[in-house]
Design brief:
By secondary structure, this protein is of the alpha+beta class. The protein has a single domain, classed as Glutaredoxin (3-Layer(aba) Sandwich). It has four helices and four strands; from the N terminus they run E-H-E-H-E-E-H-H. It has a four-stranded mixed beta sheet with strand order 2-1-3-4, sandwiched between helices. The protein is globular and about 35 Å long. It starts with a strand and ends in a 7-residue tail after the last helix.
Length: 87
């Protein structure tokens, strides 16, 4: 079983920090996809589907991570979402 992690970014320094943090926390059970919303492709449609309203945003298994809804992205919240935890 794989945990699907999607990161929505727009090329900003905060986005770069989030990508780095997620990459540091991932494990073999995590499949990470990064969508730059400044580029053409499926990222914009996926962001709309999930209700992404700001970047950076991390989506885990189709749900926006709690840390991305109300507060800055934090390692403990991402871990609570399952990132870095073997299935």
């Amino acid at each position: 079983m794989i945990r699907q992690v999607e990161i929505f970014i727009a090329g900003c320094p905060l986005c770069d920090e989030t990508v780095k943090l997620v990459n540091e926390l991932t494990c073999p059970s995590c499949d990470v996809a990064i969508y730059n919303l400044n580029e053409e492709g499926e990222g914009v449609a996926k962001a709309k589907q999930y209700g992404v309203t700001s970047v950076p945003t991390v989506v885990v298994n189709g749900q926006i991570a709690e840390c991305c809804e109300r507060s800055p992205i934090a390692a403990d919240t991402l871990k609570a979402a399952g990132i870095g935890q073997p299935l």
